[in-house]
């Protein structure tokens, strides 16, 4: 069915609520997305019908929940075009996924080795590598951006060398909306012999991730930013790497045989998934990606582009507004400052009008310092937002400007 | 500084019925708040708030606490003016006794003191209260001696 935002909206119950009498205009999708009814139903169905632990039970409920739970792994594998389903590791989110990789790489790093990230990193994709360097004596290099918020590819190239063990960067910047040329960057990093991790937290919801054609080694994302529950996430990694990747947590499920003094690790994916998992969440994640896959994704992407283009155009015409992050290729995020207003003021006065945005440093404090701003107001869009909502944002901003004058 | 009293503010705010007028009034209160000299805006005076910076400086004179506050956000600045109308140039015992939560809910502004709002207002109220409390303890003990 052709993309129809009205039909999409009907499936998200929260979108019909109001804030102090104004309809909710939710423009904080980079922080988290809402859940369609089918995801809420899948979670509720699991708890009210099949609730049980997975993999272990000798009963009907366990069969059903294991089927749904492992079915979700197949869904994710299809959604990102994994080579095999075992490459999909359940985590609690992007942050944990990155930690699993950072924890493992730290054990393989030596003084003199280097890791490379970019200036536009979310703290989750920065502090983790800082720590891996601190424990191993390796050095963290940071590839610079220009003032528009685009990566300088020449300098990125220069920073790659035979000591670069791993390169990590965001698919899309959560603070600026910059879409990185990831295919090109992956190729450059692979040519230098480094492992490559893509922070896909903001990239996954656009439905066009194909890990095989990208050629990266790890792609990580959070469920809650792609219409699924919080507390779910994915670490996708190449089977050949994950098979021998240092285990993350130890305990039940991740072992094959155990004696009082020793243990052998289970095979993929279980060796990296210790303990009882977030079963309901994983089932919700499966439902969310099934749902997204059923949509007209080309239509959706056109709609998302139109939202971005319209928001940018309105922002450029808005007196006293400065866009932060003016990369040529941007998606989903409009960061800005209003003259004479602290982002916190702007956020509050928009909230009073039913418009939900985020303000602050967006977990990218070094990036804010690099751009010389105290933080920004950030409107971020998802497939269910409408062009009318973009208008509503700018109408409300007029009132904000008036009040702050 | 001569700030509006809590009673005046209560009366004024009761007069407005739409949110825009209320917040314009609050923003204007903030404009009347004397600003803090930049050299006083040091890290040790910074009150940890999530989104905007808030500084607090105080002196204890003639049995009264005199505060200077600053914020880089205008609504927080206005709310600080509300807080100061209750606390500035008051004795430590008056400050300890003053029910700020009640005051804010009478003003229908209690959401600004809720822990989820990352504006540091709650931290600053906590800080003021604890300064007053420790001074009160000192003076109470002195009387007992
Ligand atoms: C680019 C980016 N990386 C990492 C994260 C961390 O995601 P989570 O908090 O879900 O683990 C986020 C979420 O804000 C993000 O936008």
TrEMBL record, chain A:
Its EC number is 2.8.1.7. It catalyses: (sulfur carrier)-H + L-cysteine = (sulfur carrier)-SH + L-alanine. It comes from the Bacteria. Its cofactor is pyridoxal 5'-phosphate. InterPro entries: Aminotrans_V_dom (IPR000192), Aminotrans_V_PyrdxlP_BS (IPR020578), Cys_dSase_SufS (IPR010970), PyrdxlP-dep_Trfase (IPR015424), PyrdxlP-dep_Trfase_major (IPR015421), PyrdxlP-dep_Trfase_small (IPR015422). One of its GO terms (molecular function) is cysteine desulfurase activity. GO terms for biological process: cysteine metabolic process. Gene3D superfamilies: Aspartate Aminotransferase, domain 1 (3.90.1150.10), Type I PLP-dependent aspartate aminotransferase-like (Major domain) (3.40.640.10). Keywords: Pyridoxal phosphate, Transferase. Pfam families: Aminotran_5. Residues 25-393 form the Aminotransferase class V domain. Catalyzes the removal of elemental sulfur and selenium atoms from L-cysteine, L-cystine, L-selenocysteine, and L-selenocystine to produce L-alanine. PANTHER family: CYSTEINE DESULFURASE, CYSTEINE DESULFURASE 1, CHLOROPLASTIC. Belongs to the class-V pyridoxal-phosphate-dependent aminotransferase family. Csd subfamily. This is Cysteine desulfurase.
From TrEMBL, chain B:
InterPro entries: Fe-S_metab-assoc_dom (IPR003808). Residues 11-130 form the Fe-S metabolism associated domain. It comes from Marinibactrum halimedae. Belongs to the SufE family. The lineage of its organism: Bacteria, Pseudomonadati, Pseudomonadota, Gammaproteobacteria, Cellvibrionales. This is Cysteine desulfurase, sulfur acceptor subunit CsdE.
């Amino acid at each position: 069915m052709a993309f129809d935002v009205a039909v999409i909206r009907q499936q998200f119950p929260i979108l019909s609520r109001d804030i102090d009498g104004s309809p909710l205009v939710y423009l904080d999708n980079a922080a988290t997305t809402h859940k369609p009814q089918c995801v809420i139903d899948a979670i509720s169905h699991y708890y009210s019908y099949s609730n049980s632990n997975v993999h272990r039970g000798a009963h009907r409920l366990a069969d059903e929940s294991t089927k749904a739970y492992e079915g979700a792994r197949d869904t994710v594998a299809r959604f990102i075009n994994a080579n095999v389903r075992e490459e999909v590791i359940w985590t609690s989110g992007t942050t944990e996924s990155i930690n699993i990789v950072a924890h493992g790489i730290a054990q393989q790093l030596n003084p003199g080795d280097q890791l490379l990230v970019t200036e536009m990193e979310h703290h989750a994709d920065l502090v983790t590598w800082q720590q891996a360097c601190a424990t191993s004596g390796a050095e963290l290099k940071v590839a610079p951006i220009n003032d528009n918020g685009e990566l300088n590819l020449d300098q990125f190239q220069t920073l790659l060398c035979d000591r670069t063990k791993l390169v990590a960067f965001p698919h899309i910047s959560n603070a600026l909306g910059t879409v990185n040329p990831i295919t090109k960057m992956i190729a450059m990093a692979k040519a230098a012999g480094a492992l490559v991790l893509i922070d896909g937290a903001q990239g996954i919801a656009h439905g066009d991730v194909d890990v095989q054609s990208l050629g990266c080694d790890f792609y990580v994302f959070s469920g809650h930013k792609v219409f699924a529950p919080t507390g779910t996430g994915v670490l996708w990694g190449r089977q050949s790497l994950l098979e021998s990747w240092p285990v993350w947590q130890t305990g039940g499920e991740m072992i094959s045989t155990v004696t009082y003094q020793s243990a052998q690790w289970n095979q993929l994916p279980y060796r990296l998934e210790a303990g009882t998992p977030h079963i309901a969440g994983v089932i919700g994640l499966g439902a969310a990606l099934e749902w997204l896959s059923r949509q007209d994704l080309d239509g959706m992407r056109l709609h998302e582009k139109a939202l971005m283009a319209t928001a940018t155009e309105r922002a450029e015409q808005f007196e006293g507004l400065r866009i932060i992050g003016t990369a040529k290729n941007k998606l989903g995020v409009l960061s800005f400052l209003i003259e004479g207003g602290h982002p916190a003021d702007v956020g509050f006065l928009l909230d009073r009008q039913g418009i939900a945005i985020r303000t602050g440093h967006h977990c990218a404090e070094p990036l804010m310092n690099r751009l010389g701003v105290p933080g920004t107001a950030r409107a971020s869009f998802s497939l269910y937002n409408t062009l009318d909502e973009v208008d509503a944002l700018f109408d409300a901003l007029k009132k904000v400007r008036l009040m702050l004058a | 500084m001569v700030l509006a009293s809590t009673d005046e503010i209560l009366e004024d705010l009761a007069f407005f019925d739409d949110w825009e007028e209320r917040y314009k009034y609050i923003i204007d209160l903030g404009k009347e708040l004397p600003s803090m000299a930049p050299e006083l805006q040091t890290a040790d005076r910074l009150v940890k708030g999530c989104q905007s910076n808030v500084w607090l400086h105080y002196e204890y004179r003639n049995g009264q606490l005199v505060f200077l506050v600053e914020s880089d956000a205008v609504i927080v600045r206005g709310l600080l003016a509300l807080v100061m109308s209750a606390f500035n140039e008051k004795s430590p015992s008056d400050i300890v006794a003053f029910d700020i939560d009640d005051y804010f809910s009478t003003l229908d502004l209690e959401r600004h003191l809720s822990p989820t709002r990352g504006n540091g207002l709650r931290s600053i109220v906590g800080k003021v209260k604890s300064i007053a409390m420790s001074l009160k303890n000192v003076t109470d003990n002195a009387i007992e001696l």
